[in-house]
Design a protein that fits this description.
With 170 residues, this protein is of the alpha+beta class. It is 26% helix and 31% strand. This is N-acetyltransferase domain-containing protein.
Length: 170
């Protein structure tokens, strides 16, 4: 049975960074020569340092199987903003930055569990995430969770051009 544990900004254990980096190393083992993939430690440090950072990690016993994390978007800098002509009436947004599952636990429903736990009870009106369109099955999965593509965005010069996906939160 998988146990889900929540971690928040200001309440992270000393080994938190290593925990996420270990999952990442397994999930991207065949792509570790990609310079953008190699920057993941910076992203962990950046996101976990944000006020409002929220992370859910799944454990099979003591072994981490995957995680999902994000933080509230800075008003005026939401990823969807450059894609929509008019902002939604209620535009406070939670940015889902990462959803990662180790290969052994893929196709088990783990990503759905992690994502659902991450966005459950969020006070924001919207959730946004970016998905590499080179992975249409992943985009289809997000659509099945209520996301819709609203545009495209390349957040860094060395990153892929991502599909921006937005959904309403209850």
């Amino acid at each position: 049975m998988i146990e889900l544990r929540r971690y928040r900004h200001g309440d992270l254990p000393a080994d938190f960074r290593d925990l996420l980096l270990g999952v990442h190393a397994d999930a991207y083992a065949t792509q570790m020569d990609d310079p953008f993939i190699q920057r993941f430690p910076w992203f962990v440090d950046h996101w976990s340092g944000l006020v409002g950072f929220d992370c859910v990690v799944g454990f099979d016993g003591t072994e981490p199987v995957g995680f999902a994390y994000g933080a509230p978007a800075t008003p005026g800098r939401e990823w969807w903003r450059e894609c929509l002509a008019r902002p939604p009436e209620h535009s406070d947004t939670f940015s889902v930055s990462e959803l990662m599952v180790r290969p052994r636990w893929r196709k088990t429903g783990m990503s759905d569990q992690l994502h659902a736990a991450l966005i459950a009870d969020r006070p924001e009106a919207l959730a946004v995430l970016l998905v590499d369109p080179e992975h249409p099955k992943v985009q289809d999965l997000y659509e099945s969770w209520g996301y819709r593509k609203v545009g495209d965005r390349q957040p860094f010069p060395d990153s892929p051009r991502y599909a921006v996906m937005l959904r309403d939160l209850p």
